[in-house]
Amino acid sequence: MKSSQQIIAMRQSLLDWYQREGRTLPWRIRPEDRAAGVMAHPYEIWLSEIMCQQTTTTAASAYWHKFLKAWPNVADLAAAPRDDIMTAWAGLGYYARARNLHKCAKVVCEQYGGVFPDSEEELLTLPGIGLYSAAAIAGICYNEPTNVVDGNVERVISRIFCVETQMPKAKPEIRILAGEFADPQHPGDYAQALMDLGAHVCKPKNPKCGDCPWELECTAHKFDTMVDYPKRKLKTERPVRYGAVFFIKDAGQIWLRQRPDKGLLGGMMELPGTEWTEVKTDIDGLLAQAPFPGNWLQLDSEVKHVFTHFTLFLTVFTAQISAERFDICANLNMLDIYALPSLMRKAIALATQPPH
Ligand code: SF4
User: Fold this and answer.
1) How far does residue 246's CA lie from ligand 1's centre (Å)?
2) pTM score
3) Which residues, other chains included, contact 13 with Cβ-Cβ below 8 Å and sequence gap of 6+?
4) Domain ranges in the chain with CATH number 3.90.79.10
5) Candidates 21, 153, 159: which one to mutate for ligand 1, based on the most atoms within 8 Å of Cβ?
6) Is 220 in the pocket of ligand 1 (CB under 6 A)?
7) Which tens digit of pLDDT belongs to each residue from 193-239?
8) Spatial CB neighbours of 98, under 8 Å, sequence gap ≥ 6
9) What CATH class is the domain 4-228?
């Protein structure tokens, strides 16, 4: 814990640093502008906050300018066809943000007369505005002493206090600690200063502690354990599964079948195959699951495919029988018309590659 005197001193050193080193961004009202009476525009700040989620400020800047040119205010955006907004958003990713942008603009116009609500609480009720955005807009535009916590802020605070709880469980604890620092007098500048500190000084891998205004107050820096925070679970190794597929050919035709609708790769096409198991089955066990007993040839190489939750190794067997017996008879030269997942395309490529 920090004493109230330490907290006041830390706020001030951060604000001083921000005055000197803080970023200049197209939508940002810097402390000197604010002192000169310039006010942040809620529509512009809202656009920037939504665009900057999962996007760099550099990429977001171009879109921010484009949107303001096409739709200079929230009423223009609300009145625009949604398809136009989606087209303008193309390339920025996470398209739910664009859909919510339009929804939010409509709500602001229909329920708030085209003026963004001026409290964190009400902002939170708008489509696409979450805890972080509501706090940021209320702090920056309306000087509400909010507690703005994004991933950058979480990293800084977890290092200052060496928060030992693992993420994401540590989030509420970090939020409380961050809240003690939030500046009641300069909430907007303070929030932007802290986010800048996280983005450009307290970096995930190489924090530049020598440039940090909080260097002397930082517990992780004191023990040289900066990169250990925030604490995260060690990545566990991806489990492995094993199976086999049977590449059955008759001249230029191969045997395909369709996977059941439910489950992984549901409804996609596949080569006939075995179950996928956690323990490797021996050759006899695999061949017992072949569509017919026969003269199976096992390929030397296996297919390796990485799914999100496991890695699969498939043994490939080949054989030849009359196409009359095939479940689905697919022309090898026309496989593009079948919904074959890349796993199966890898297996087919392996089975059809010319011998070395
Ligand atoms: S001293 Fe280093 S680790 Fe601590 S807050 Fe500053 S940049 Fe981050």
Assistant:
1) 57
2) 0.67
3) 213, 214
4) 240-352
5) 159
6) yes
7) 999 999 999 999 999 999 999 999 999 999 999 999 999 987 778 99
8) 85, 86, 89, 92
9) mainly alpha
